[in-house]
User: What shape does this take?
Amino acid sequence: MADTLSPEEIEALFTRSDGTFLCARWGRPIVPVVFGVDDRTLGIFKGAIEAVVALADHRMAETDPELGANLMVFFVRDWSELTETPNLDRLVPDLAALVTRLQAAGANQYRIFRFDADGGIKACFVFLRLDEVLAAMDAETLALGQVVQSVLLWSDRAFTERSALAQLPDGTVVLRPEIGALIRAAHDPALPGCASDTSHALRLHARMLVS
Assistant: This one.
């Protein structure tokens, strides 16, 4: 596996399907909470979050002064359960319409990001519907994949052709080292927390080379 990514590959990871480039990282400590899972899966998710946050050289906290928790993961069996979740409609605008769209699309996951005034991520809501595909995944792989996709604002096409994860010969699933290096580079305080110019990919590439 390659240890780095070219500037063009980095640019593609943050270029959305409408052609716009946008890279944003967390601007505040991450405070996670996971709903709808047993204690074992909860521990696995929290472990994955702690590992990725440490990799990024970012921070976690006990509470977020604005939201209490700012990385919220919801597991459901059916999308309709979201509309039955108390007060969720206060956090997610047009929740009923979103549920209708997810049902129509047959989706099994969805993420919503919120941003600070300077463009950094201030919250992420992750919704997972345990269909046959997600239910067949082991909890460690599912958790690591979801955390990686929540730690930066990736393109909507970022990992459609190649996963952010890789499998070792012994079957262990790990984060691809070049993706880990990119996550760490993007959280470097010397770089802006949000960038919409493709030249940011060159800065990220340079940071990866020296880190």
Remarks:
- The CA atoms of residues 35 and 74 lie 5 Å apart.
